[in-house]
User: Fold this.
Amino acid sequence: MLLVTGVSGALGSLVAERLAGRGDVVLGTRAGLPGTRLLDFDAPETLPEAFAGVDTLLLISAGYGEDDTVVARHEAVISAAERAGVRHVVYTSLSGDGDHLTYALAHRWTERRLLRSPTLDWTILRNGLYAEFLTWIAAPDADGRITSPLGEGRLSAVARADLADVAVSVATDPAAHRNRVYELVGERPLGGADLAAALGATYAPGTLADTRAAVAASGAAPFQVPMLASTYSAIAHGFMDGTGVESDLRALLGGREPLDALDVFVRAVRAG
Ligand SMILES: NC(=O)c1ccc[n+]([C@@H]2O[C@H](COP(=O)([O-])OP(=O)(O)OC[C@H]3O[C@@H](n4cnc5c(N)ncnc54)[C@H](OP(=O)(O)O)[C@@H]3O)[C@@H](O)[C@H]2O)c1
Assistant:
C-alpha cells in the first residue's frame, strides 16, 4: 500500500489526481478531506493510524517554517514510518543547485535522516523550483514591470505537473528506484527579461536590499524574508540555471519533453 502525504497542497493534489481510483493507494492530509486519512506531522499521535498497512510512503515536504519546525515535522513522520514498518520512503526534496537557499537545510537534514535510517529504503526527488513559483517571486507589478532582483541570472524552473508525474512513477515502482537521488530541474533556464518579454512587460531589476525591505514590510513571516532573499540571490548569481546539476527529469518522464516552464509561468500569471 502506498500512502501519499499532503494531498491538499498544490503538488500533493496533482499526485492524488494521477493516482485516483487505485485500490493500493491511500491519501493523507491535515485537511480532513473525505476519503483521506488524517495525517498531521505537527500532531504525531495521528501518524500510527495513518500508516497502518503502508509499505511505501510518498512524503511531500512540509517546508514552510523555521528549520526547527520543519525538521521536527520530518523527524516525526520518518520515525513514525520506521515504527510502523514502512519499507520505502520517497521524499520530495530540493535540487542540488539549491544549497544556497536558506530552506535547503531542512531538506538536506531530511535526506540525511533517510540515508541513515536503519530500516528504510529511500528515494530522494530533488525537485527544482516550480515554474509556478516564479509567479510569487517575479510577477509584474501594476505598471507592467518586473522589478524582482534576479539580475542577469536565470532559473531552470520545472512545472509542478512534471514533478507530480515523476513522483507517481517512482512511488508506484519504488524498488526500481531504491536508494537513488534524482535531480529534477527544467531544461530551459528563464531570466527576468524572458519572463517580461513573454508577458509584454518590462524588466527593471531592483536591488536585494530594497526587495528584502519590501518583503519584510509586507507582513511576511520572519523566516520568509531570508527565504525569499536567498532565492533571489541564488538565481541572480547564477546558481540555479541548471548548469550545476545533471537533470534526471526527462529520463524519469519516460523520455518525453518536460512542459515548457515559460508557458506554465505565463498561464499561471494570467490565471491570477
Ligand atoms: N520546488 C518549489 O518551487 C517549492 C516551492 C514551494 C514549496 N516547496 C516545497 O514543496 C512542498 C510541496 O509544494 P506545494 O507547492 O504543494 O506546497 P503547498 O501547496 O503550500 O502545500 C504545502 C504542503 O505541506 C504540507 N504540510 C504542511 N504542514 C504539514 C503538516 N503539519 N503535516 C503534514 N503535512 C503538512 C501540506 O499538506 P496538507 O495536505 O496536510 O495541507 C501540503 O502538502 C512544500 O510543502 C514545500 O516544502 C517547493
Summary: The chain has eleven helices and eleven strands. The chain has a mean pLDDT of 97.
